[in-house]
Fold each of these.
Amino acid sequence: MKSPVYNHLLLAKENHKAGYWVLIDPDKTSTKDLPLTIERSIDAGVDAFLVGGSLLLTPDFDHFLKIFKSYSADLPVIIFPGGVHQLSAHADAILFLSLLSGRNAHHIIGSQVIAAPIIHRLEIEPISTAYLLVESGRATSAEFMSGTTPLPRHKVEIAVAHALAASYMGFQTIYLEGGSGADHSVPEEMIYAISQSVETPLIVGGGIRTPEDAYKKVAAGASFIVTGNILEKNRDARFLESFVAAVHQAG
């Protein structure tokens, strides 16, 4: 299977210490705000866009992606799905998530079987991703909507075991997720332990509020950093630029 987007992401990581992705929630960003939001991100030097959300109340996801793609230039637009209904041929790729931190078969393989033929028909590049929810101090949207218990943040060995399983199962990436609006981000000790145990690229998101936080995650072993909420609250272009610089220059 051709993987142009995945290879692009790996190349961006090789060119810098790590890649930096901006998560756009269609429920929190109107189509009229998209041009400025995307332009600001491109100018700052982000490596990719994630688009999606846990609920997605926006009625026309496909239309939103079509408009989004018209402004995104050559940067990859990747779906971060909250369900099977969040699919669109206008995206370049999709994180094909399997919630390995849970024990609900529907979120591990059930919805994936439903989505796979649609993704194939729409010719969206799938990036197989082991999705690991990590305890963050409060119940997050992903945790509540999936009905699963996150990995305990003080039990690093449990997280490492899940990451090893993901590696052995052949996932292209592992996503350590603190959750939207998390009180606490994924601990650096956990990131480091996993990065020392597997070669699979690590995506880390949730609760990362400052460039210093992002820097620490990359120094601990994160391959890609994802932020969303904090950029919605602070729209200063210099703030975004400082995030990009911290991620690209960490190490």
Note: Strands lie at 19-24, 48-51, 77-79, 93-98, 125-133, 173-177, 202-205, 224-227.
Amino acid sequence: MKSFHQLLKENKILVIPGVFNAASALVAKQVGFLALYLSGSGIATGCFGVPDLGITTLDDVCEETKRIANIEALDVTPLLVDADTGFGDVTLTVQKLESAGAAGIHIEDQIFPKRCGHRPGKEVISADEMFERIQSAVKARSNPDFSIIARVDSRSVNGLEDAIDRAKKYQDAGADAIFAEALESKDEYKRFVNAIKVPVLANMTEFGKTPYISVYEFETLGVRMVIFPLTAFRRMMKSAEEVYRIIKKEGTQKSILNHLQTREELYKLLNYYELEKAIDKK
């Protein structure tokens, strides 16, 4: 499996779609993405039906990471995992997620319980405490290619300059990249990129504080990684709602057959036929 370090050397910008279970990861890989992202919100919402407010645990994240990272078809596709605030023990978090198959994690400087990075009411820990959090994470990894990304959440709390100052400190602590959360303009991203030496990751989430900026625009700004955490999940949820309404109203799915993944398409995605043959030979 290629590391994020290798992919960044080979690509000017890395586009990382959010996946929310093993099946969605297979689809993203089939489309051609080089890396995948597992968000804490995706796990909380998609797997447990609860909001992303620190309710899910490290074990919950590890379990979903294992399901995705250990699919044979994804063995060359690195998975970046949202580690929230470190789950109280950054050393253990790094060790368990690295063992689960993640290629890297990001840790944020919010207090626990955290909030969505684009929601009001966030609070951040001190930069010094986060410095120690990142140092502990770096020391805990066994593979030097396991990426430790520091997420800076202070833009909407203390302003852009504070966020940039924190980013500089976190890179000095050993962070491999900086996740600049909830920046509010292209100019802010440009200033952020110019201020630090390590790669910058942007969060192109929907309905948040960041305006819609294309991958091509991010590339011109010098951003090296862009995640789309819940875009596919939001589309899937809306589509599922429409399907349920149609079945409830019409009593049949006939009117939407052309909008469904076929059995054949699903079987190809899952490598069904080869596995069936292997089972029959036993």
Note: Residues 231-250 form the longest helix (20 residues).
